[in-house]
Amino acid sequence: MSPQNLTIIGLGLIGSSLAHASRENCPNIQITGYDASPDVRARASEIGLCRNIADTPETAVQNADLVILCVPVGAMAEVAAQLAEHLPKDCIVSDVGSCKQSVYKALQDSLSNVIIIPAHPVAGTEKSGPDAGFASLFKGRWCIITPPDNAPSKAIEILQSFWQGLGANVEIMDAQHHDMILAITSHLPHLIAYTIVGTANDLEEVTKSEVIKYSAGGFRDFTRIAASDPVMWRDIFLSNKDAVLEMLQRFSEDLTALQRAIRYDKGDELEALFARTREIRRSVIEEGQDDEAPDFGRKH
Ligand code: NAP
Q: Coil, strand or helix: which one is 188?
């Protein structure tokens, strides 16, 4: 059975992409959207994001059989508390948050008589807001579903086939394992990008205009990641604190080893590592997770 009435709370990049993708791939679904920001609601209506844009969170969910929360992870608890009294019994409440243990806890604290099944589409861009979304965002990307032990298998199947219908590949895993994997594949890379771009900005020996002028040397690739939404990423680091700190510790140790290799002219160590990392890039392309065009497909 597929959902008939989908409610999307939060109409930014992910929420608006979900609306576009659902319209395109699920012709019989009724979509209702809500966002806390009146400007975002007005813009969502203007661009025809979904059939109904509700004025309040309560009215947004009144007929829903699937509700997907697409707000920053730090706002999940507040949204769950707003919806708690108004959700139809037995409706499925899911989300797209980038951390899974903290979001489940936030939802569980307020919601009862509904089925909570957290999920995370591992897809995105550095843009935010209702104009940033597009229907193909989830195509060929992974959506990780982290059902709690008591989630009914029928509801998991409904959510799984919903995401598959949008073109995503679905993986089911434990929330703790999700948070550890994402700490290394997503959260740490963002932290490193934020650091490098911040450090370059603070340098006194090199001017800011020189940093920007010569950015094609590698720096500009970090600036894409470091342009990601500040609120969203603040919340991710605070919500997935333990896993991020654990990965950061390992990273610092590896960085120190590299520092030593450079200091003591251990060229073979450097070369061996760089050969291994080049293989990783090859695997990412072979798995269809990036384009093989050189320089990320930039026009030259
Ligand atoms: P976004 O573009 O900033 O959109 C979030 C929207 O939620 C904004 O319009 C925001 O309004 C609204 N909002 C905030 N608090 C709210 C509340 N209490 N009630 C209703 N609406 C509220 O962010 P996004 O990139 O779509 O991210 C949304 C979620 O997806 C996050 O949990 C993030 O971790 C997850 N995610 C993001 C990516 C990515 O690459 N961006 C990928 C996968 C998953 P205001 O702007 O007025 O605050």
A: helix
Q: Is residue 118 within 6 Å of ligand 1 at its C-beta? A: no
Task: State in Å: Cα 128 to ligand 1 middle.
Answer: 8
102 Cα: distance to centroid of ligand 1 (angstroms)? 16
Q: Is pLDDT at 6 greater than 80 in this prediction?
A: yes
* pLDDT for the residue numbered 65: 96
Taking only the tens place, the pLDDT of each residue in 119-172 is 999 999 999 999 999 999 999 999 999 999 999 999 999 999 999 999 999 999
- The position carrying tokens 């610092």 is 252
- The DSSP line for 56-95 is SHHHHTTT-SEEEE-S-GGGHHHHHHHHTTTSPTT-EEEE
- Is 104 within 8 Å of 173 (Cβ atoms)? no
DSSP classification of residue 110: H
Q: Closest Cα to residue 145, out of 176, 118, 163, 123?
A: 118
CA 43 to chain centre: 22
Closest residue by CA, ligand 1 atom 41: 124
Closest CA to ligand 1's atom 45: 37
pLDDT band at 204 (very low <50, low <70, confident <90, very high): confident
What is the band of 87 on the pLDDT scale with cuts at 50, 70, 90? Answer: very high
Measure the CA–CA gap between 194 and 188, rounded to whole angstroms: 10
Residue 33 host element (H or E): strand 30-34
* Cβ atoms of 296 and 221 closer than 8 Å: yes
Report whether residue 72 contacts ligand 1, using a CB cutoff of 6 Å. Answer: yes
Q: Give the Cβ contact number of residue 58 at 10 Å.
A: 14
Nearest CA to ligand 1 atom 47: 37
Tell me phi and psi for residue 86, to 5 degrees.
-115, -5
| Percent of the chain at pLDDT exceeding 70 | 100
Say yes or no: CB of residue 37 within 6 Å of ligand 1. Answer: yes
